[in-house]
Amino acid sequence: MPALAYIERLKRKEKKSKGEISFLRDKRVTTFQKILCTAKTSHPKLQVLLRIVEEQLSNKEDSLIIIFVQYRDTINTVLETLEKGEIKALRFVGQANRENEKGMSQKHQTEALETFRNRRVNVLVASSVAEEGLDIPKVDLVIFYEPVPSEIRAIQRRGRTGRSAMGKVIILIADGTKDEAYYFAEIAREKKMRNFVRWLGRRVG
Questions:
Q1: 3-state DSSP call for residue 22?
Q2: How far apart are the C-alpha atoms of 67 and 108, rounded to whole Å?
Q3: Residues 6 or more apart from 2 whose CB is under 8 A from it?
Q4: Radius of gyration of the chain (CA)
Q5: What is the longest distance spanned by two Cα atoms in the chain?
Q6: For the chain, how many helices (H) and strands (E)?
Q7: Residues 104 and 26 in one domain
Q8: Residues 75, 173 within the same domain
């Protein structure tokens, strides 16, 4: 669980700011942590995600799938879920280190992409680093674990699909959460951008 991982990571941090110390001492945070630790169920998205990946691989065994995830803590949770489902997946993040978690060197990124490209692993669980600028093969399925409010990032992610045939994009949205706001914000911004491009095309033409 990302929230629990964040609290535990903050506790392990050697030099804490006054705000971080105050946060950790807050009784509400302590209670929240206990609830997370004793929770027996995971986020329903994880089981939906697992089912989607299993179905894709069942229909096309050599499928290449990218799962885009916003937070590194969530990437680890997704990887654990896929592992329990006996699906081989690779973590793919940027080079920057985050507190108690190392990034991936350029060498390790290249090795991971080569493994993915050769289909020794079918699934890449990636942060935003996979959106642009890297030699990632076209894939059969792109999954957004959560929507992104940026129309540019959404278009870049969708651009990873489709090789000889049309690829698919699936966006996971949890009802009654910020997922819905992000999704509709991205749709509105993308529509506005496309209208502007058409207007500009008419002006230039």
A1: helix
A2: 19
A3: 71, 73, 74, 77
A4: 19
A5: 64
A6: 8, 5
A7: no
A8: yes
Q: What domain range includes position 92? A: 44-181
For residue 101, the cross-strand partners are: 98
Domain count, the chain: 2
Vertex 159: Cα angle to 134 and 116 (nearest 5): 50
Q: Is 143 exposed, middle or buried (0-12, 13-18, 19+ CB in 10 A)?
A: buried
The answer to whether residues 150 and 58 belong to one domain is yes
- 3-state SS, residue 91: strand
Where do the H-state alpha helices sit in the chain? Answer: 2-12, 18-25, 27-38, 44-59, 72-84, 106-117, 151-158, 178-204
For residues 90 and 132, what is the distance between their CA atoms, to the nearest angstrom?
18
Domain holding 64: CATH number? Answer: 3.40.50.300
One digit per residue, pLDDT tens: the chain, 205 residues?
567 667 777 777 778 788 888 888 888 877 777 766 655 446 788 999 999 999 999 999 999 999 999 888 889 889 999 998 899 999 998 887 776 677 888 899 889 999 999 999 999 999 877 556 566 777 899 898 988 766 555 566 566 554 445 678 898 988 877 777 776 676 677 677 777 677 767 777 6
Kindly state the tokens that stand for 84.
Answer: 């329990």
Q: Tokens at residue 13, please? A: 């941090």
The two structure tokens encoding residue 50 = 């697992």
For residue 166, the SS3 value is: coil
Single-letter residue type at 189: R
